[in-house]
Every structure is written in structure tokens, then in C-alpha cells.
């Protein structure tokens, strides 16, 4: 069991990414969505493909992303019997008295920046993306 890969803190694009939630977890993907008002839309997604370890709340605020500690890497590596390609660590406000320590390991991470509506709109363009739970009134 070699814990030799370099796992740096992820770098997010500039934006108002203080509100976060799990927008989808299906089909081998975990999607974390971020924005400044998740009631209407989000503008950023962290898409973890083939997540193998997830320890984070379903909703949180103001995450501080950092490189995973050697102890965190060892914890994940021992549990999986190998070191995953991506390990993301962060602290976030999850509503408790202390920040929540979060850790996600996966085979791949894609950072997608685009507006995603969280409610149906008749005037949405054909290229507009909706959150997975939004369906048109006619469906």
C-alpha cells in the first residue's frame, strides 16, 4: 500500500460559491452543486466519477478546500486497499458548533461551471440545463 501520490487542494473558478449541496448521486457520479442562492439555480458543480469514499454532509456552507493530510490519505488507502486517483479534503459549516471535516475519494473529478436552473421555466432555451429533479409540467 503506497501512499505516494500528490493530492493538492482543488482550485475553484472565481465566483460566489458559499452554499453547497449534493445535487445528485447516481450512475457512478456524485455531484456537489454550489452557488449563492440554491433555491433558484447553481453555477458550479464538482462531479466525482466513481466515488469510492464519501464523508460529507448533504448540505454545507463556505467550504475551505485543502490538500488531504497524510492521515486522511492513509485512512482512505487502507479502507480501499489502494490509493484513489482523486482525494479532496475540506472543512465546511454544516450547522454545528464546529466545522465539519469532509473527505471524498474518486477516480475522477470534473469542475463544471454553468448555470443550472432548479425550477421549471417555459422560456428556458434549448441549451439550458435543469437540476435532475426538475421536469416540465407536460411530463
The total of beta strands comes to 7
Query: Can you tell me the residue ranges where pLDDT is under 50 for at least 5 consecutive residues?
Result: none
Strand order of the largest sheet: 1-2-3-6-5-4
Strand content: over 45%
**Tally of contiguous helical segments:** 1
Biggest pleated-sheet summary: 6 strands, antiparallel, barrel
Nearest-integer average pLDDT: 88
Q: Which percent bin holds the helix content?
A: under 10%
Broad structural category: mainly beta
Shape: globular
State Rg: 16 Å
Compressed to H and E, one letter per element, the order equals: EEEEHEEE
Top keywords for this entry?
139 residues, mainly beta, 6-stranded antiparallel β-barrel, 1 helix, 7 strands, 8% helix
Task: Explain the overall architecture.
This protein has 139 residues and is mainly beta. The protein has one domain. The protein has one helix and seven strands. A six-stranded antiparallel barrel has the order 1-2-3-6-5-4.
Secondary structure blueprint with pairings:
Blueprint: E1 19-26, E2 29-35, E3 41-55, E4 59-66, H1 70-80, E5 86-93, E6 100-117, E7 129-130
Parallel strand pairs: 6-7
Antiparallel strand pairs: 1-2, 1-4, 2-3, 3-6, 4-5, 5-6
Please sum up the structure shown.
With 139 residues, the chain is mainly beta.
Amino acid at each position: 500500500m503506497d501512499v505516494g501520490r500528490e493530492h493538492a487542494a482543488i482550485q475553484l473558478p472565481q465566483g460566489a460559491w458559499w452554499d453547497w449541496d449534493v445535487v445528485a448521486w447516481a450512475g457512478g457520479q456524485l455531484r456537489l452543486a454550489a452557488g449563492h442562492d440554491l433555491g433558484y439555480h447553481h453555477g458550479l458543480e464538482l462531479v466525482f466519477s466513481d466515488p469510492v469514499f464519501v464523508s460529507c454532509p448533504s448540505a454545507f456552507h463556505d467550504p475551505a478546500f485543502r490538500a488531504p493530510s497524510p492521515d486522511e490519505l492513509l485512512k482512505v488507502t487502507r479502507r480501499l486497499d489502494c490509493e484513489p486517483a482523486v482525494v479532496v479534503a475540506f472543512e465546511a459549516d454544516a450547522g454545528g458548533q464546529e466545522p465539519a471535516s469532509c473527505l471524498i475519494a474518486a477516480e475522477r473529478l470534473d469542475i463544471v461551471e454553468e448555470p443550472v436552473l432548479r425550477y421549471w421555466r417555459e422560456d428556458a432555451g434549448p441549451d439550458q440545463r435543469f437540476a435532475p429533479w426538475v421536469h416540465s409540467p407536460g411530463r
